[in-house]
Amino acid sequence: MQQRSHRLRRIFASDGRTLIVAMDHAGYMGPVPGLIDPAATVRKVVAGGADAVMAQLGSARRIVGALDGRGLIISVDLNAPDPMAVVEQAVAFGADGIKTLAYWGSDDPTGLRNLGRYGVLCERWGMPFQAEMIPVSFAAVDKHTPANIAIAARVGAECGADHVKTMYTGDPETFRAVVEGAGVPVIILGGARSDGGTAIARQVADAVSVGAAGIAFGRNIWSAPDPEEATRAFAAAIHGPTSRAGRVPQATRS
Q1: Could you list the mean pLDDT of each consecutive 10-residue stretch along the chain, which spans 254 residues?
Q2: Which of 15, 198, 221, 242 is the least crowded, having the fewest Cβ atoms under 10 Å away?
Q3: What is the per-residue DSSP string for 196-225?
Q4: Measured between alpha carbons, how far is 167 from 190 in angstroms, rounded to an integer?
Q5: Pairwise CA distance, residues 233 & 163, whole Å
Q6: How far apart are CA 73 and CA 62, in angstroms?
């Protein structure tokens, strides 16, 4: 569908990769530094080369004028009572995609059914759909094995996701299996704020080297001392010299 392709071009750069800045934390963390004035932060990450920004509807309303043609992904509730209304709202708002979080292997019998409903509705509306897939729960660290991550990613794809966000397995070879098994682009999440340095940069480079389509990082960018420079460093790891930093965006938001 042409609408989907147009929206995806705002999320993914011409090399097929993306740097998404996840700013959908205010809904549970509140007005923490970096999210108090989301538009100011967005201007910094856009200057640093972000391809897209993810936010809940409230912040999305505040940042839309600062995106400068970059993609906008609306983070939505998996268990919203009216998923059709959620998708229709995203379309009316001019979003380029929606994202929802689901847990594979949890005791929630409705979660994957709701994920599939979003897949169908997004297909109907030509709306790119990102499924964030976590084995069991964030707290169930013992379940975050490479095999379970690979299963969760594929389940998200089978529910209709155009691309899947999930955790890095810890090494390139096991993550290669996640990428190859998913059947759709896979991007990695950032998790808690790291101390910076080379470790997280190496993680990104290793993931991209085996086929990851990029990252969706939040606290490691917007809570960094210099969000623009943090974005620029990750953009270089993902895109190399083709980073969007300082360049005219591919598509201008209408």
Answers
A1: 90 97 94 97 98 97 97 97 97 98 92 96 98 97 98 98 97 97 97 69 95 97 96 95 55 44
A2: 198
A3: -SHHHHHHHHHHHHTT--EEEESHHHHTSS
A4: 8
A5: 23
A6: 14
